[in-house]
Write a structure and sequence with these properties.
There is one protein chain. By secondary structure, this protein is mainly beta. It is built from no helices and 10 strands. The strands form 2 sheets. Strands 2-10-9-4-5-6 form a 6-stranded mixed sheet, with no helix packed on it. β5 and β6 form a beta hairpin. The protein starts with a strand and ends with a strand.
Length: 113
């Protein structure tokens, strides 16, 4: 059974940085794409950044130049480096693949002064 665990969230002031981790077990991680999503109460879960099995990257327009997605297949982990955080980056961040696995708990990111 595939297990997804997100971590690294927290509270940060605008302009600050956080690095999120997405660790996956129970599957061949290296052959799967990974997408980070942001969930805000009352809104649909939206993709923020994605990386294919071959390393091709995609970013939501609002995070381009601020977020960097990488993966370390030896650790079955994908990382989302988030710099120059803004109020609108606040939310629960979750990662998944396509076809999707069972969703993890996510990690809360709060940007507030």
């Amino acid at each position: 059974q595939v297990q997804v665990v997100e971590s690294g969230g927290g509270w940060v002031q605008p302009g600050g940085s956080l690095k999120l981790s997405c660790t996956v077990s129970g599957t061949t991680f290296s052959s799967r794409s990974i997408t980070w999503f942001r969930q805000v109460p009352g809104k649909q879960r939206e993709p923020v950044a994605g990386i294919s099995a071959g390393g091709r990257l995609t970013y939501e327009d609002n995070v381009k130049g601020r977020f960097t997605l990488t993966r370390d297949n030896s650790k079955n982990t994908a990382f989302l480096q988030m710099n120059n955080l803004k109020f609108e980056d606040t939310g629960v961040y979750l990662c998944n693949s396509f076809p999707n696995w069972d969703w993890g708990q996510g990690t809360q990111v709060t940007v507030s002064s």
